[in-house]
Design brief:
heterotrimer, A alpha/beta, B alpha/beta, C alpha/beta, A: Rossmann fold, 6-stranded mixed β-sheet, 10 helices, C: 11-stranded mixed β-sheet, 8-stranded parallel β-sheet, 14 helices, 29% strand
Chain lengths: 249, 373, 483
């Protein structure tokens, strides 16, 4: 489903990713772990198509298509979803309005008819319950004044509503206490599906206690330096990154 | 002729200033910028006259160079910096009519800890120039002496990474009409901190135009006005972010009692392309007298999108709840009001870096507050 | 009233105008060029006005000759030749188009986005409208309902003939004949407008609207509106100028006067989308409008809401004179300036009475090479004990070549008054835009969404039908502004 080959990415002329290769199949959950500054967020942004992240070499193929040729909103319509580390506040736009606008924009791009307000409301309500997203939250402006936990829950709610094919979770655990983490992880696990692939990006192993990955890639210095099964996370936790990561000079 | 003309300073510029003033005449309330300060009517028949006001150095610390503008053979730094702009009406008048004034310089890299004390006295027009070369630093204490009508044209040139703290205290000047126009140009990394304390007069106006001309330049303005009787005080500022990554703050607190009038007009301009400009402006006034008036006009003029600019303004009375709280703790009303007034003004006073000067302004305010109570 | 019904009714009006009004208007075009006493006589005669009205106009005209065009606003435009025929020749002599095929497709695209039905599109584009829209019954029902309530809602020319006492009593009492250059000009030559009188204790049973009447009749360059809400009454009035016109610069100098007596309330909403000129700044309306409300009675309330997206130049300060004790004034504004548009708009809140309150919420959006200025005055007079004002003024810049300016005047002469003003300047953050894109929302739609969020407090003040249209308009007027 997702094939990243020898990916080099520069931000502001500085090379951050230096030849990353990764392959992800439907139904799989892969984790990307790595220390600060290893290029984790760059990877998530380049997959989502943020401006300013320039691919200087290599390729990203998504369902046989060159992903880098698509605009961010086209990628979203084709099922690429990025749960952001720092969800953005948009004052004055209620969460519900945002969900409806985004959902219908994606549907329109796929040639599906718009869902009316009631249809969207029903859909969102059903999914909101399990994630403990209150009706009141849906009426508030998007992410404005939300706690860290609320923001992350809302990201997962959006994932549930949009039903992406490829979900990238960028440091979804950051800033969460253990209860909030568990709630978010349960939400993610509920969305595991044979047709859906997930890329879980994290610094710490603890998220992977709850979202158990099929495979772990360790990212350092812009490259995958180690790969393995879920036990690799425990090894990292016990010995630290320095032990495993021998950053090439 | 003597004075500025004798200096060999460009005659043309002086003529230009005279022509500009002749064309515009004495500002009055129908002129937008002078809406709240009718200079023409305050001056009456006498007009602006042609007298020459005096300057006086009370303390000249070592390292500060001085040039008397009535003397001949001005040094290069005077020629290069004197009378750079003439666009301001009253500044043009001071340039056209003053026969002298003072020029001061702190040479490159010289840091002076003792404050320089400069007073303007007597009636008429006078010019001043202060140049801080790159890396220099100084505290300037400006005194406002008596005089029926005085018009001071003051230019500041701040070099790269220079630091000037300017404290100006304008005591209650009764029936005097006092105007001063300052123009400040700040180079990259330079910093200008100014505090203006005003007790007003028949008409007092302090006008300052600041150009943040180099990246990293900063201007921090603060001021208080405490007015009683029929006093008037007008602070008019214009901060121009000519280039990006410049920073300005303004904090003005005015108290108007009796029949007085406190005016603040502050304009912040961010030039096109001056991205990364950061400006904050706050002006608050308290009205104590039934017939007092406060006028606030905080203005933003923004031509760049990547900026952080905000302003706030408020007029009101002392907070009734705070007053009640203090009285409930046994503090008599008059004293409680005094405390709250002092607290209101204190924010702005706290902006003065120089400890001695801060204490001085504080004392002046306390004395005036007691007199008003 | 549902949109459909309203639309039908409006289209009916257009139909009527066409049948009875337009031919005459074309004759009017033959009137002498330029502006003189003769022109004033001509208009007055055309309207069949009584002598007192003619005198009033002539007085204004004499005064106008001595006045100078104001130049304090931050707007620049070529000198207007007041002797050119085009500015009185109110009804444009553009021949009616026979079908939509003759209309600029770009214009039609805009209408489509606005969700305006095809029939309306035809009307807006100046296509001949035939009897299909003859919904006289609808109009009659509408009139009956108002008559029943005693509400007078008619063209001002009709009111001058049929209700002279009311007009004499109130006309020019809020915006005096001598008020300003453009208002005085209007007093001399106004050609049409609306008159509303809501009697004591009556709550007007429906929103009154001149949705696109002005455009349809094309006499709107100098319209004059007078609304009187008698004691204890309520009226909500909507004014829409949503018809773009393909024209040279054209002067629009309207005057609106509102009078609220004791315990009365007037809510006045405007969606202004006059032709703003093209993307190079060519053409567009010069919109110099004087709007003022007088809270004459105690506990009266006047609320202005405006969405200004059109015009090449906007010069407009809907104001409130808070004369009655405990009266309330409100001003909610969205002003969008794109391309080469220039907007200088805001309000005046004049607190004269005790315990008067005012609230100002202004949202200015600048894009392209536009200049957008908020200019507002809050003035508290000596007798306005306990007056309160709150002002929030936010500017949003899109791109680095536009300007956003804020010029508030705050004057207080009463120690018990409290005035608060806050202003901020921001831009659409790149991360906000990216967040929307990532969730599948295309760029223009994302900009529209974010800007609508920015304007929310004001949009909420609009009646529902208008709010929907205004939201779309916000999006359309900013299309392509983020590169």
């Amino acid at each position: 489903m997702l094939d990243i080959k020898n990916l080099h990415v520069a931000v502001g002329g500085k090379e951050i990713l230096k030849g990353l290769t990764l392959s992800l199949q439907p139904g799989q959950v892969h984790a990307i772990m790595g220390p600060n500054g290893s290029g984790k967020s760059t990877l998530s942004y380049v997959l989502a198509g943020r401006a300013g992240y320039d691919i200087t070499e290599g390729s990203i193929t998504y369902n046989g298509e060159d992903l880098s040729a698509l605009k961010p909103e086209e990628r979203a319509a084709k099922g690429v979803f990025l749960a952001m580390q720092y969800p953005v506040e948009i004052p004055g736009v209620t969460t519900m309005t945002f969900l409806k606008t985004a959902l219908n924009a994606q549907r329109r791009a796929r040639g599906e008819p718009d869902l009316d307000a009631i249809g969207v409301l029903k859909l969102v309500r059903a999914k909101a319950k399990t994630l403990n997203v209150s009706e009141e939250m849906l009426k508030r402006p998007l992410n404005v004044g939300f706690s860290g936990g609320e923001k992350k829950r809302l990201e997962i709610l959006q994932m549930a509503v949009f039903e992406p094919k490829l979900a990238i979770l960028d440091e979804t655990d950051s800033g969460l206490d253990i209860d909030a983490l568990r709630l978010v992880a349960e939400g993610v696990n509920a969305l595991r599906d044979p047709s859906r692939a997930m890329l879980v990006i994290t610094h710490y192993q603890r998220l992977l206690d709850y979202i158990v990955p099929d495979r772990i890639h360790v990212l350092a210095g812009g490259r995958i330096v180690a790969e393995g099964g879920k036990e690799l996370a425990l090894e990292l936790e016990a010995k630290g990154y320095e032990h495993i990561v021998k950053v090439p000079a | 002729m003597t004075g500025i003309t004798a200096l060999g300073l460009p005659e043309a510029r002086r003529n230009e200033a005279a022509a500009l003033f002749r064309a515009r005449g004495v500002p009055h309330r129908r002129i937008e910028d002078w809406k709240y300060s009718d200079l023409k009517s305050a001056l009456g028949e006498g007009g602006i006259g042609a007298a020459v006001a005096q300057w006086q150095i009370l303390h000249q610390p070592d390292g500060v160079e001085l040039f008397d503008l009535t003397q001949s053979n001005p040094p290069e730094w005077v020629l290069a910096n004197f009378a750079r702009t003439t666009a301001n009406t009253m500044s043009a008048a001071s340039l056209a009519l003053s026969k002298g004034g003072v020029a001061l310089r702190v040479p490159k890299g010289v840091c002076i800890t003792n404050p320089l004390k400069l007073d303007f006295t007597a009636a008429g027009h006078v010019r001043a120039l202060l140049v801080l070369e790159d890396g220099a630093s100084l505290t300037l204490v400006e005194g406002v002496g008596p005089g029926h009508f005085r018009n001071v044209g003051f230019e500041f040139v701040l070099g790269e990474a220079s630091v000037l703290e300017h404290v100006r205290v304008s005591p209650d000047a009764g029936e005097a009409v006092l105007v001063e126009e300052m123009s400040v140009r700040i180079g990259a990394g330079g910093q200008y901190r100014a505090h203006f304390a005003a007790f007003g007069s028949k008409l007092s106006r302090m006008e300052v135009e600041i150009t943040l001309a180099g990246a990293g330049a900063q201007a921090h303005l603060s001021g208080v006005a405490l007015l009683d009787g029929k006093r008037h005080s007008d602070v008019t500022t214009h901060v121009i972010h000519a280039v990006g990554n410049t920073h300005s703050t303004q904090l003005f607190k005015h108290v108007a009692g009796g029949n007085s009038r406190a005016v603040y007009q502050g304009k912040v301009t961010v030039a096109q392309g001056a991205n990364g400009s950061d400006s904050n402006q706050s002006a608050k006034a308290l009205l104590l007298g039934e017939n007092a008036e406060a006028d606030l006009k905080p203005e933003l003029e923004i031509f760049a999108d990547d900026v952080k600019c905000a302003h706030g303004a408020a007029v009101g009375d002392l907070d009734a709840e705070s007053l009640f709280y203090l009285r409930a703790r046994g503090i008599p009303e008059a004293e409680a009001r005094g405390l709250l007034l002092h607290a209101f003004l204190e924010d702005a006073v706290a902006e003065i870096s120089n400890t001695d000067q801060r204490e001085l302004v504080r004392t002046e305010l306390l004395t005036a507050l007691k007199a008003m109570a | 009233m549902s949109i459909a019904v309203e639309t039908k009714q409006q289209v009916a009006e257009i139909g009527e105008k066409y049948k009875y009004g337009f031919v005459t208007d074309i004759e009017m075009d033959m009137a002498p060029r330029g502006l003189s006493e003769d022109t004033v006589h001509f208009i007055s005669a055309k309207k069949g006005e009584p002598e007192w009205m003619l005198e009033w106009r002539l007085g204004a005209f004499k005064r106008w000759l001595t006045m100078k065009e104001p130049n304090w606003a931050r707007v620049h435009y070529p000198k207007i030749d007041y002797q050119a025929s085009y500015y009185y020749a109110a009804p444009k002599n553009t021949p009616l188009k026979q079908s939509l095929d003759e209309v600029d497709p770009k214009l039609l695209e805009t209408y489509k986005k606005l969700g305006i039905p095809l029939h309306e599109q035809m009307a807006l584009a100046g296509v001949a409208v035939d009897a299909v829209f003859d919904s006289v019954s609808v109009a009659t029902t509408f009139k009956d309902k108002l008559n029943e309530a005693g509400v007078i809602f008619c063209p001002i020319s009709e009111a001058i003939r049929d209700h002279p006492d009311l007009v004499k009593k109130y006309l020019g009492t809020v915006v005096p004949v001598t008020d300003n250059f453009f208002a005085t000009l209007n007093a001399a030559v106004f050609s049409d407008g609306t008159f509303v009188y809501v009697p004591k204790g009556v709550r007007c049973p429906m929103e009154l609207s001149t949705y696109f009447r002005i455009n349809a009749s094309e006499t709107g360059q100098f319209e004059r509106t007078l609304i009187i809400a008698d004691e204890g009454s309520y009226v909500s009035y909507l004014e829409g100028c949503t018809a773009p016109k393909r024209d040279e610069n054209q002067l629009h100098a309207a005057v609106v006067e509102l009078i609220a007596l004791d315990n009365a309330e007037i809510k006045y909403s405007t969606v202004q989308n006059w032709y703003p000129g093209d993307e190079n700044g060519l053409g567009g309306i010069f919109n110099f409008v004087t709007k003022r409300g007088d809270c004459r009675g105690k506990k009266s309330k006047i609320s202005w809401t405006q969405v200004e997206t059109g015009s090449a130049i906007t010069w407009k300060y809907p104001s409130c004179i808070l004369r009655g004790d405990e009266s309330v004034g409100e001003f909610y504004s969205i002003a969008i300036a794109n391309n080469y548009q220039q907007a200088d708009t805001g309000t005046k809140m004049i607190h004269l009475g005790a315990n008067t309150r005012s609230r100002i919420i202004s949202k200015g959006i600048s894009a392209g090479k536009a200049q957008n200025t908020y200019r507002g005055l809050v003035s508290v007079y000596g007798k306005a004990k306990n007056a309160r004002n709150y002002t929030q003024c936010d500017s949003l810049l899109i791109g680095g070549e536009c300007g956003a300016h804020t010029v508030p005047y705050i004057e207080s002469r009463n120690p018990t008054a409290r005035i608060e003003h806050e202003a901020t300047t921001s831009k659409i953050a790149e991360d906000q835009l990216f967040y929307c894109l990532q969730r599948g929302i295309p760029q223009d739609e994302a900009v529209s969404l974010i800007v609508n969020g920015f304007c929310r407090e004001v949009l909420q003040q609009l009646p529902m039908e208008f709010a929907v249209e205004a939201q779309k308009l916000v999006g359309i007027s900013l299309e392509g502004s983020v590169g």
